[in-house]
Design goal:
The protein has 549 residues and is of the alpha+beta class. It has a five-stranded antiparallel sheet with strand order 1-3-5-4-2, with helices on both faces. It has a three-stranded antiparallel sheet with strand order 6-7-8. The relative contact order is 0.06.
Length: 549
């Protein structure tokens, strides 16, 4: 499949683009590779052409045009645009794509879509890690040199005039993607629909972060193996990939959004929320939510609700005697499912946080592997935390691991219940605020509607007060839907209900915060217990091994 990528550059040195296209560069640092004498090395195979300029004087011609129109002088201005068309690696062997043919396709694409710009078109045949992925680089000066015909995807008239800058709008990018798809279809190359959002959206930034992270992890694991230490982690995960894997696992068994949220929280410590019809996820190590749209279509409302429905149906087919909960099909139904009666004020829960911390695993601590002094400091800290963990268990009277895990499960259930009650109250408060809004709108234009009923020329009156009457009708219709035929509540009653819900919400927030902190402390104790028992088990195995020797 061929894809197109765009990079906007503020670098005033146009010659750097030429050097990147002609000479070899490190794919991680983007710095040129030098030989023993300090000279840059030419690429093994490349094809270079220019549009509206000579390819080897591209830099000077761009500077001359910028000076003529007095543009691209400021530091923050975009000086050039870099487009990359990457073809499928299979196109070389299965479709007979060559570097020369790809260069001709790139030139044709550039002449059609960037006709008024000075442009460099260069084809490389190596790809990342010498994968054989043929790709075409198109570098254009952001300033247009010639007038061109106006196209429907252009937003402004100046986008077709010389002396104005290139503007990549959403419509323009959609047009470019469609052009790439049409080109590959015409040439018989592998291609997918670029206009359909990806199920798993991986950006360029995340791709390189994963590559760099995996390389560092491999080096660290190799060093650990040399020291006869077995690495625990062999696969590096970005934060977004951790979320994708966790969501895929939870969605494979969950039958409702509530169960889905509970699995993410208990198993992966991921907080799930719905805001303005969008699904969002909070990574345990982050403070800002990541929306499902940034992860891919598999992690948004439509796909997940369908997955919940299929899971519920599958279980119903296996166990016909068990009645499964109805799975919501809309956001409104979902919010109703998550928001039953929340009028009861939660029982106050008092929690005093201790200074207990996690025991650090030296095998996975990179800094400890790099510094012996820091490793010694971590060992002393671990001894202190282990002692505090044992004291914590004794103070709270846990006689066995089963008793502790029972308390942990109860704390998790209480946290989930507190979170659910808080969400219910917030939804009720949202509904009351909406009802107050439409009640005020109804009362504001009630007299206008009364005058309309009394007027002799209703058509003329309606035309003169169309906006007011439309707002009145909207408010009245909405209030009737919410009241289900009952008498409309007064503004005084609505504001009283709002004050009650705000007070209830504030108490539930405090209650949920205390339950969550208590659960996290128990998880810390649980992790420390696992570390203590794991180390003890290793020591016992070492003693047995020494006795055998």
């Amino acid at each position: 499949m061929a894809v197109i990528k765009h990079i906007a550059s503020k670098n005033a040195d146009y010659g750097e683009s030429e050097r990147y296209l002609i000479f070899q560069h490190n794919e991680y640092t983007q710095k040129p590779i030098l030989d023993d004498e300090g000279h840059m090395i030419l690429r093994d195979e490349y094809y270079l052409d220019g549009l509206n300029c000579d390819p080897f004087t591209f830099a000077s011609e761009c500077q001359e045009l910028n000076s003529y129109y007095h543009k691209n002088k400021n530091f923050n201005e975009i000086k050039s645009h870099h487009y990359i068309i990457s073809f499928d690696p299979k196109d070389r062997d299965e479709c007979g794509l060559t570097g020369e043919r790809a260069q001709q396709l790139g030139l044709t694409f550039t002449k059609k879509n960037f006709p008024g710009h000075q442009a460099l078109v260069c084809t490389h045949t190596d790809g990342h890690n010498e994968s054989g992925n043929i790709h075409v680089h198109i570098v254009i000066n952001s300033l247009r040199k010639y007038d061109i015909p106006w196209e429907p995807y252009m937003e402004f008239d100046c986008e077709a005039k010389a002396g104005y800058k290139h503007h990549l709008s959403t419509a323009y990018l959609t047009h470019l993607k469609q052009e790439v798809m049409n080109m590959c279809k015409k040439e018989g190359l592998h291609q997918v629909d670029l206009l359909t959002p990806a199920e798993r959206k991986i950006t360029e930034k995340e791709y390189w972060a994963q590559r760099r992270g995996q390389e560092k992890l491999d080096k660290l694991n190799q060093k650990m193996k040399e020291d006869e230490i077995t690495p625990k982690e062999t696969r590096y995960q970005t934060e977004k990939q951790f979320l994708r894997d966790a969501i895929d696992d939870a969605a494979s068994t969950a039958r409702s959004p509530e169960e889905f949220s509970k699995i993410l929280d208990e198993k992966y410590h991921i907080i799930f929320k719905i805001s303005r019809n969008r699904y969002s996820y909070l990574h345990p190590d982050r403070k800002k939510y990541i929306t499902g749209r940034n992860l891919g279509t598999r992690y948004e409302e439509d796909f997940l609700l369908q997955a919940f429905k299929e899971n519920a149906k599958s279980l119903s087919d296996r166990k016909m005697e068990i009645e499964e909960p109805q799975v919501p099909t809309t956001t409104k139904d979902l919010q109703t499912t998550l928001s039953p009666d929340a009028s009861a004020i939660p029982v106050p829960f008092i929690f005093i946080k201790s200074d207990l911390r996690l025991v650090i695993d030296l095998q996975t601590c990179i800094k400890a592997q790099q510094s012996e002094a820091y490793a010694q400091k971590v060992k002393l800290s671990n001894l202190k935390q282990m002692a505090q963990t044992v004291a914590y268990i004794q103070e709270h009277g846990y006689g066995s691991l089963e008793d502790f895990h029972t308390a942990l499960d109860q704390a998790s259930d209480q946290t989930s219940a507190a979170r659910k009650s808080l969400k219910d109250t917030e939804q009720q408060l949202k509904d009351v605020n909406e009802q107050i809004h439409f009640t005020g709108q109804y009362l504001a234009y009630k007299n206008v509607y009364a005058n309309y009923r009394k007027s002799r020329n209703k058509d003329k009156f309606y035309e003169e007060h169309r906006a007011e009457l439309s707002l009145y009708d909207t408010a009245l219709r909405t209030l009737k839907e919410k009241s289900d035929g009952n008498k409309l509540p007064s503004m005084k009653a609505l504001y009283a209900e709002k004050d009650r819900l705000i007070e209830l919400r504030d108490m539930q927030r405090e209650d949920f915060s205390n339950h969550r902190d208590y659960e996290r402390e128990l998880h810390t104790v649980s992790a420390n217990i696992d570390m203590i028992l794991g180390k003890s088990h290793q020591q016992e195995q070492q003693i047995i091994k020494n006795q055998d020797l």
